[in-house]
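note to self: dont lose this again. the chain is below, predicted strucutre after it. 153 aa total, dont forget to put it in the shared folder this time
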Amino acid sequence: MNEPRRPAPDELKPVTYPLRRRFVWVVLPAMILFMVVVAVLAGLGGRTLLTDFHLQQAAREAVSIVASVTRQAPGELRAAFARQPDPGTDLRGAIAAIGAVLDEAVADRRFRKVKVYDESGVLRYSTDREEIGTVERGEAITPRSAARATLRR
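---
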């Protein structure tokens, strides 16, 4: 009986794994890159989610402030933001009355700055009194955004 001779342990050649090199140089870096991309996208998604949440919360607060001003000073509000104010209207007095109501409403909330514009972009109220009366242009101050924020009469 001729059995094949088994080599001695010291005669064995070391076995190399043919896929190990490919795994180390291709698969492992691809997996790390994938995990980094997922982490970055998760961070950006979380940031966008938080920004949207805070903007929605600020919009709800703004609606409640507008409702408060509408309840407490409806005549002054219409006078201050009319397209063509009546000649006998005390515009400064109306804006001062609205400012007092807004100051009270804003004091209860944690807003850093509140600005109220008319349709032409003139700043009618600001928590920073030096800015009142200035004209500002920007994406947030457009006829489309003004139409969304216009008070229903």
